[in-house]
């Protein structure tokens, strides 16, 4: 969900205002994805590198996360959306962690779209975590080194049990992956959209899905 800061700057507003508008887009796009039958949606809300931002911006984002999760708890109540968090959420304040746990718990039994919210997520961190878990099992004799394969790695990531993404859409015209789902995205289709995230609409998503469906995916075959 990139481009909130630039969106605000263009309007002479503080960056935090861009995040507030971006949060509204998040809500619209999430609801739309669920309505049209998307099974898994992952949004990149906060990366392991985003802590480098000015303290004022980080605290504005934390405030927004709290407000949004509180709203999501009531807002998504009659919804079928399963909310999951990917990333190291132990770095957040205890009240935010509590909200994260409550949101996951209260939506766990639902059967609709799985919404992964990536918070304090970084793909390299995720792979380090998985490597440690696998190494511990090998050390303790629970896993033989010869049995380690790609599935072993996939099943130790935050996204364990979920399919690899079919499509990644990056708004704001940046041509980078920025430490997002590096392992999972081995054969993911990539679409760059020039629009800044607060301006992103359901029509833009429809257009991306049309383009996606016209792509010829070969997964390394012919
Ligand atoms: C939102 O966009 C991404 C978050 C980390 C919340 P940015 O804040 O990266 O906006 P730009 O890239 O500076 O425009
Ligand atoms: Mg950015």
Give a verbal description of the structure.
The chain has a single domain (4-209), classed as Undecaprenyl pyrophosphate synthetase. The protein has 7 helices and 5 strands. It is an alpha/beta fold and 222 residues long. Helix 1 (4-10) packs across helix 2 (15-35) and helix 2 (15-35) packs parallel to helix 3 (55-75). It has helices at 4-10, 15-35, 55-75, 94-107, 123-139, 150-154, 202-214, and strands spanning 40-47, 82-86, 114-121, 167-170, 189-192. It is 44% helix and 13% strand. The protein binds 3-methylbut-3-enyl trihydrogen diphosphate and magnesium ion. Residues 1-6, 19, 22, 46, 50, 61, 172 line the site of 3-methylbut-3-enyl trihydrogen diphosphate.
Features of this protein?
222 residues; alpha/beta; Undecaprenyl pyrophosphate synthetase; three-stranded parallel beta sheet; 44% helix; binds 3-methylbut-3-enyl trihydrogen diphosphate
User: Over the alpha carbons, how many angstroms does the gyration radius reach?
Assistant: 18 Å
Q: pLDDT under 50 segments (min length 5)?
A: none
What CATH architecture do you see?
3-Layer(aba) Sandwich
Cross-sheet strand order for the largest sheet: 1-3-2
Task: Please give the alpha-carbon distance between the first and last residues.
Answer: 33 Å
Instruction: Specify the structural class.
Output: alpha/beta
Order of secondary-structure elements: HHEHEHEHHEEH
Say which molecules are bound, naming each kind only once: 3-methylbut-3-enyl trihydrogen diphosphate, magnesium ion
- Overall CATH class: Alpha Beta
Helix content: 40-55%
